[in-house]
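From the pipeline queue, job 12 of 40. The input is one protein chain; the requested action is below.

Action: predict structure.
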Amino acid sequence: MKVKILIVNAHSSRNKGDAGIILSMIDSMKRNIPNCQIKIKTRFPDEDRTAYDVPVSEAVHNVIVGDQTSKFEKLKLAWGMFKILKKNNGKPAVTDPDYEWADVVVSCGGGFLLTHGFSVMTLQHLVQLKIAFDYKKPVIIYSQSIGPLYNKIIAQWTKDVLDKVEKIFVREKISEKLLQKMKVKAPIEVVPDSAFSMDLVQSDFVDELVNFFKKDSNAPLVGVTVRDWKFPEVEDSAFHRKKYIKSIQAAIHHLETKYGAKVLLMPQVLGPNAFNDDRNISREILNGMSDTKAQLIDIDFHPRELKYFYSKMDMFIGTRMHSNIFALSSGVPTVAINYEHKTRGIMELLDLKEYVLDISAITPEDLIEAADKCWRNRNQLHSHLEKRIPGVILDAQLPAMYLNQLMRKKEKHLVNS
């Protein structure tokens, strides 16, 4: 039996972490489900068609909401999605040939079922799953972080949708506790982030780049990822953003002066908009430093190639969670900066919670202290990761193994009925 799998809720492949999740899912599914066929539904099909080696098409009822979208337009979009979520007359609220084709619908790994206020985009993600129910397809939630869900209306709709899925795989215990508190009916299991299992590829270009940076000295290479952030849970967001930037600048200066390190700001996310393009805040950080040799690597790497690049670092400081996962899964000692609970959960999974700092509370002193501790303990951390990561990579494939078992049971049921 060829299992036809439709992956939904995919985001832009300009985010190398989100692309890494999809690639790792494809890797795991092909590894664990013989002869499976895979299609992807994404919000940005034109960008994503070149990123994956499986068919890609546009998400159903696709909407793009930005800073320029008016409140009236958001309410209009939300009302349209509420009607889809409420419709229950036995017919699909939206017709789509990919849903009809699929044997099973899989909500991709990531962290998009959350809201700090009223979120049109969360509703849009829920609509992708509601259409699967309309077509009477089983739905799996694949290694996600869920929450926070501060808006009560969206929290209730999220529960209503999640109650109907076959199984929910979450990537940290914080999400599990939230779903238990919400009394979600579907079974829940905690597994590592899927991206841990993404295969890397050797790159001659990366090797040349690393050799270039090391040609004049044997200075340690330290990779850094940063991101812009709106600090939704604190009052003075401008103050906290400035403090975050100053902390990164202070850490770069400290690493250069104390260890002679070559610091590289890495291109983890390049879009799909200016706010989510890490190169912009990277330039802001470097432009505010007059005495640094740190560099922004302004190159659009494939996620597998980027993971290989991170594997060449001697230490890593990451704000982008999947940059940390790419580095950690390659055995690189890492300090993580937590902007949503998913990062802390991932580090706790690896028994590395002492190497996590919260973005809202970060100070230059704290980041320097964590970086010093990480460098001082780098050999022990590398050994620790070498022991832990193989098991984590295997466990990251548990959703794909479950999916294979589920489809075998359904096939057996069909044969016997």
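Job complete. The chain has two domains: 4-191+396-416, 204-390.
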